[in-house]
Request: fold
Amino acid sequence: MASITKKIKKGRPYYYAVESKRIDGKPRIVWQKYLGTLDAIINRAEESKPPKPKHTVIFEAGGIAALLRITQRLKLLELINEVSPKREQGPTVGHYIILAALNRALEPLSKLAIGNWYEQTVLRRLWGFDKSAFTSQRFWDHMDRFSEQDIEDIQERLVPRVEKEFGIDARILLYDTTNFFTFLSTTNDRSGLAQRGHSKQKRHDLRQIGLALLVTRDFEIPLFHKVYPGNIPDVSLFPQLTGELVDRYKRVTGKAPEATLVFDKGNVTDDVMEDLVVRGAHFVAALSANQCDNLLAIPYEEFHPIDGMPGTQAFDTTTIMWGKSCRVVVVYTESFFTQQLQGVTQNLVKCQKKLLDLAKSLERWRQGKSRGKKPSVRSVRARVGLILSAQFMKSLIQTDVKEDKQSGIPRLSYSVDHTALQRLSQERLGRTVLVSDQTQWSARQVVEAYRSLSVVEDAFKNMKNTDFLRWQPAHHWTDQKLRVHALYCVLALLVSSLARKVAFEAGVNLALPALLKELSAIREVAVIYPPGTLAHPKDHITLSRMSAHQKKLAHALEIGETLGQIG
Reply:
């Protein structure tokens, strides 16, 4: 066993670590190491203590690194710079668009705030540009470089890269539209895209922009997008986009000739469907009630259960439509019936209350207790029409407006048509009519394909999320800027959806907002030491402590490799 011994040399004590053993029965030193004077030993002990850091700096890392890695695999930076080149000075156009896309995905901010956000992320270390390069004016200058054709070219060239690097299940492609309200003033005449129309967010008082998306059924990967004026209804837009959609559909599905385009009834017209048939595109769509009254009236006794779909019944047949043999499936769903019946009941209550209020108002006129413009039969009928404008109400509530001969004031009477209500319940509520040219499909396959439209609805819901992937705020007031805004918002959805696909294939199944929240919780920590600290000559960068879930995500999405912290 080693021990410390003191030796006096020239009157000064020195210390040695020694090890002794018995040799021939006598203790002998078999090993020794010089330790120095007592002061030297104390100094070395002090220097061996861990240095005290000056401070730490925390950067947003996980979400940035994961999504940036997706852009690197797609070579997105190079693609954007090929489409919109500039001289080699400072950040490229691609840097601005990717920064905007990452910001939209993780923490949507205005261009005024995005430079400060960049400074607090690992992008500052990875890219090396000062935050002053990302002022709002510099952003707008670089956005100005994009033409509408540049945006189309990026979309066109990006899809093959997605297919090659990540793979696409293109057997089912989903199309739908939504709109986003803006705060552009009425007097702003620089935007033709921002128009007043039917707002899906109930902001009919504001100008809005429409967005059409074509996405895959799996992982809602966007393959095509188009912005359009907010006052164009779906039924008018779809014919304009049919050619572009089918062209994109064919280019994407070259390896899957049986791929099917799925869309809702708001897009179905005879001209559109005939065009799809001529172009050779397979489809699944819903029909509106006025296109299939006879099918909706089929007796319930002729429906049969669909295996694997509890609460769902179907009647299916084949017929010739638009010059092609098609399978028609009338679907009845118990949950849909309940929802519709509840909606009808609520509207009946609201309408009867408003009609009662109107009748009482007319009675006050007859009693001479009201002033103002005297109501007429015509004006009262117009108000009744507005009251009954909700779906089914005109057929369920019978009204009668007649002029009172004594006072000249109209009288209003009304009643619920219970026969019509019973017929509506038996023939309409809970039913959806689907049509497909995939005649070899079963009723279940047709229904499953149509119900997958909820995937596009999820994509739109994510783009209206207040925390991640948010379209708004869109602080732009020209069509060119709004189109570029749409580009990086859709790119944010694209890279996030691909990250979700990678995570799913690694065994982590999370919805997009949950995935982005988990990734954003992974931080990079820089430990800064005082100048001249000998025991630690340079600052240290590490990742924050991760849960087992986060470690799995970090490995699958190559976060460490992107940050240069392998192992």
Q: What stands out?
A: Residues 67 and 495 are 6 Å apart (CA to CA). Residues 334-366 form the longest helix (33 residues).
